[in-house]
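RECORD TYPE: inverse folding
INPUT: structure tokens
STRUCTURE:
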């Protein structure tokens, strides 16, 4: 794929954070779920432990657990430094400090690393990436994507966003994308409105929904899309 591990800053979130970021209900968790750009999150591992169905895709999965683990150790001090220098941009309600946050996230990433070799064998982890995915039309009930689309609007083009979101609509009956802010700025991505317009032009239903999660200040909204293939 051409991805070099030194280009990646792995950062994974837990099952509990996913449930809040995407406002997941118990019924949602029983659906077939695709986690796009999941990185070293523990969501797949924890869902598998509950006997539930998740496939995660991310180009980082082309590397071994040992390689990903080493990169996590290398980059975590950088993340702490960035959080310290911009702590006013975050809501420190659930955690008291950048160090505590990193410890919590490290625990989630260790759970991912422990599960990753088995998950690869079980084909729960796929080394694929947007804007094109290797899945069938409407293969999943629900596609989730966090901290990629809109987050990196300064690096990924509007066309990338448009094609990627329509691809998510192709492979899943419902799509949820979180957050809508550009990384480390607190500003809503300028791509939100044109992407919504493009999706609606294809007949899909779109709404912006508040969610019970806010770490990046003002980042408590997701886009929810119901595919036009759904009743």
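DESIGNED SEQUENCE:
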């Amino acid at each position: 794929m051409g991805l070099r591990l030194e280009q990646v800053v792995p950062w994974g979130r837990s099952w509990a954070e996913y449930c809040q970021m995407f406002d997941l209900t118990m019924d949602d968790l029983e659906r077939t779920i695709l986690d796009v750009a999941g990185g070293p999150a523990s969501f797949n591992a924890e869902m598998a432990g509950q006997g539930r169905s998740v496939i995660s895709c991310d180009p980082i999965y082309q590397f071994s657990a040992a390689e990903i683990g080493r990169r996590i150790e290398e980059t975590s001090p950088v993340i702490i430094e960035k959080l310290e220098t911009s702590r006013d941009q975050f809501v420190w309600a659930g955690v008291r400090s950048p160090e505590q946050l990193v410890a919590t996230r490290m625990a989630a990433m260790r759970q991912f690393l422990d599960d990753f070799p088995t998950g690869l064998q079980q084909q729960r982890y796929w080394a694929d990436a947007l804007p094109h995915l290797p899945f069938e039309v409407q293969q999943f009930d629900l596609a989730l994507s966090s901290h990629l689309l809109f987050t990196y609007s300064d690096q990924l083009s509007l066309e990338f966003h448009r094609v990627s979101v329509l691809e998510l609509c192709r492979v899943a009956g419902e799509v949820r994308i979180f957050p809508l802010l550009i990384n480390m700025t607190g500003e809503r991505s300028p791509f939100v409105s044109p992407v919504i317009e493009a999706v609606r032009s294809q007949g899909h239903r779109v709404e912006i929904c508040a969610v019970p999660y806010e770490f990046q200040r003002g980042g408590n909204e997701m886009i929810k899309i119901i595919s036009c293939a759904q009743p």
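NOTES: Helices lie at 15-21, 26-29, 43-49, 65-85, 98-121, 158-171, 192-201.
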